[in-house]
Design goal:
146 residues, five-stranded antiparallel β-sheet, four-stranded antiparallel β-sheet, globular
């Protein structure tokens, strides 16, 4: 049976759709680059001490965690690759995550403050690339998950 133009178009469309059906979709996630001074509150200071926040806290690290931050479910990367001025870590999620997979963003060179949020359950792996930031104590971080 000869293939007509409409039928060829339909076959091409079906082939394209079936090829992409099983492909993993890459998702870019990001952390806020800094915690502004207005977001940093110091309460319960004893005596006559007056708190003052001089500068924002800059993003220094990011990593997936098992469950919400109060679980302290730090994960170990599967691999780490060092490049010129960069470090790339890869995390592969296997097994059960009953409280979800979360992304934790850490601020300050010792991760003094963190922000965390739940990631979509369908995410199976994340790659995080660290580069030098423009401010002291800051890193440029790219997060790709699929």
């Amino acid at each position: 049976m000869p293939i007509t133009k409409p039928r060829a178009l339909l076959l091409t469309l079906l082939a394209a759709l079936s090829g992409s059906a099983g492909a993993a979709v890459s998702t870019s996630l990001s952390c806020p680059p800094a915690l502004p001074t207005s977001a940093i509150k110091i309460d319960s200071v004893d005596g006559d001490w007056v708190p003052y926040v001089k500068s924002p806290m800059y993003l220094y690290a990011a990593a997936p965690i098992d469950g919400p931050p109060d679980n302290r479910g730090d994960l170990v990367p599967d691999k780490e690759r060092r490049g010129k001025g960069t470090v790339t870590t890869t995390y592969t999620f296997q097994g059960s995550y009953p409280q979800g997979k979360w992304l934790q963003c850490a601020y300050g060179e010792n991760s003094q403050m963190t922000l965390s949020r739940r990631m979509p359950d369908a995410i199976a792996a994340c790659t995080i690339t660290y580069g030098q930031g423009t401010k002291a104590g800051q890193r440029d971080i790219k997060i790709e998950c699929r």
